[in-house]
Amino acid sequence: MTTRYDVSRDELAAVLSGAPRYRVDQVWNGLYSRLGEPDTWTDLPRALRAELAARLPVALSPVTESVSDKGDTVKFLWELDGGSRIETVLMLYRDRATVCISSQAGCAMACGFCATGQAGFTRHLSAGEIVEQVVRATERARAVDRRVSNVVFMGMGEPMANEAAVWTAVERIHGDLGLSARHITISTVGIIPGIRKLAERPLPVNLAVSLHAANDALRDELVPINRRYPIDDLVGACRDYLARRNRRISFEWAMIDGVNDRDSDARELADVCRRLRPTAHVNLIPLNPTPGYPTRGSSLKRVHEFRDLLERFGANATVRQNRGTEIDAACGQLAAGQPVTLRPTRSGHTVVE
Ligand code: SAH
Predict the structure, then answer these.
(1) 3-state helix, strand, coil in the chain (%, to 5)
(2) Model confidence, pTM
(3) How many Å apart are CA 130 and CA 31, to the nearest integer?
(4) Ligand 1 atom nearest 223 alpha carbon
(5) pLDDT: which is higher, 206 or 346
(6) N-terminal to C-terminal alpha carbon distance within the chain
(7) Inter-axis angle of helices 163-175 and 127-143, to 10 degrees?
(8) Band of the pLDDT at 337, cuts 50, 70, 90?
(9) Across 12-39, average pLDDT
(10) Which DSSP state fits 256?
(11) Active site amino acids
(12) What distances in angstroms separate CA 29 from CA 9, 24, 35, 38, 194, one per listed residue?
């Protein structure tokens, strides 16, 4: 099914055949600047709006919207054509907002500590299904006077396993929704052909690599795709990316108690970071709980000690704030499960059916 945000401007013109070019441009402006339903663009002819709504349906049917962190984190659960479900997370800050979007329904990478990985792969998302997540979240942000400043491909799925659709979406988010490439981040488990492809693309987006272990034996266990794309080769692909792009690469490191938070892990990680120029920046968060993984996240005290160790060994690291754990909206918790998993909390989330 072709949905509203799947079409290019020329394809839109073909769908609205007979409409003059300036009308097509007005519709495009409606889709990417005004947002909302065509119904509300009342300066456009009613017949044109009706035709658009009928021929290009939206891709995302809302199932639930959950709120936590005193209203500052919003998780959307959507149903897609065919019945699969995906999630999008909007994080509101004082004067801006970040949207975390999904690139696949489910994920085939099978990282044991990740709820999406535990659930397995269902299907790729189309470019329109990806873009519409940003559009819907932007509408929600506008309603509370925030501007979406950043988009991160850190929701469900492996973006570099769906590179073509992800790239089309990036171009739309950049060219039509108006975000600069430096405010778009693609996070990958380390699919080397995807990273190489990305290096040839014209926009210099940020690249985040989910490293989590800096030796192959441990990474093979935590991130199974490492058996195909081991650390040395991955670092090589990152170096090539940096050689083409005036950007930093960041490494994601979910800290797992007693597994990857030892002093030796910090030393190995710092060694890997220093192989890149400029050195990679490490983002640390304690592992978030998921149903299928028995090990706990490191204590915050240990996370900070680990950060200090990294700095002592010559790497830069930031401890990232955790958002949305109480509504299963935090990193690695997206599973498109039923909202009955939600518990009432002091900050009070809501579930809207
Ligand atoms: N597949 C891509 C995009 C997912 S991004 C990737 O792997 O990068 C989600 C980030 O959250 C990744 O860094 C992922 O490794 C991390 N993550 C997964 N499960 C987590 C958990 N339980 N706690 C903290 N981070 C987790």
Answers:
(1) 40, 20, 40
(2) 0.94
(3) 14
(4) 15
(5) 206
(6) 25
(7) 40
(8) confident
(9) 96
(10) B
(11) 87, 331
(12) 10, 9, 8, 11, 32
